[in-house]
TrEMBL record:
<protein>
    <recommendedName>
        <fullName>Rna-directed dna polymerase from mobile element jockey-like</fullName>
    </recommendedName>
</protein>
<dbReference type="GO" id="GO:0061343">
    <property type="term" value="P:cell adhesion involved in heart morphogenesis"/>
</dbReference>
<dbReference type="GO" id="GO:0031012">
    <property type="term" value="C:extracellular matrix"/>
</dbReference>
<dbReference type="GO" id="GO:0007508">
    <property type="term" value="P:larval heart development"/>
</dbReference>
Length: 157
C-alpha cells in the first residue's frame, strides 16, 4: 500500500514504492572523510607489504562456492565458476592482483540487483520487506580475499 493507503498493483509502482522505503531507511548523513592512508599504529603500508593474490588462493575460494546461491547482475552462476575453477583461477588472480595494487574495482563488481524479501506482517506494507543485494561473485571473492588479509594482519598485531 502506498502513503495514502491505496493498494499498488503495477510492478513498476511496487518497485518504486519499495525503493523509496528502502532508500528512506538506509540513507544516512555522511561525514566528510579526510584523505585516508593505509596507516596502522605508525606503520605505513608500502606496495611490497601487500601480499600477492595467488592462483591457488583464488582456486580455493572458487572451489568453496555454494552452487545453490543466486547469480549476481553479471549473470555468472556459482556452479559455472566452481566447475571452471582450474581454467579461470589464473585470469581472476591477475585481475584481483591489479585491483589490489591500484585500488580500482571493476565497474561490474560495484553493481547489485536489489530484491525485496518478505519478512512478516501484512504483505501490503513495504516496511515488512527487507532488501537482499545480489552482487557479482568475483567481487564477493575479492572481498573475502581482502577480509582474510586484514584479519591475518590484525591477528599478528
Amino acid at each position: 500500500m502506498n502513503d495514502v493507503g491505496a493498494l499498488v498493483v503495477e510492478d513498476t509502482e511496487k518497485a518504486e514504492l519499495l525503493n523509496a522505503f528502502f532508500a528512506s531507511v538506509f540513507t544516512a548523513k555522511t561525514v566528510p572523510h579526510e584523505s585516508q592512508t593505509l596507516e596502522t599504529r605508525g606503520k605505513v603500508w608500502r606496495e611490497e607489504d601487500f601480499p600477492s593474490v595467488g592462483e591457488d588462493w583464488v582456486r580455493d575460494y572458487l572451489a568453496k562456492l555454494d552452487i545453490h546461491k543466486s547469480m549476481g547482475p553479471d549473470g555468472m552462476h556459482p556452479r559455472v565458476l566452481r566447475e571452471l575453477a582450474d581454467v579461470i583461477a589464473e585470469p581472476l588472480s591477475i585481475i584481483y592482483e591489479r585491483s589490489w595494487r591500484t585500488g580500482e574495482v571493476p565497474e561490474d563488481w560495484r553493481k547489485a540487483n536489489i530484491t525485496p524479501v518478505y519478512k512478516k506482517g501484512k504483505k501490503e506494507d513495504p516496511g515488512n520487506y527487507r532488501p537482499i543485494s545480489l552482487t557479482s561473485l568475483p567481487g564477493k571473492i575479492m572481498e573475502r580475499l581482502i577480509l582474510d588479509v586484514i584479519s591475518k594482519y590484525i591477528d599478528h598485531l
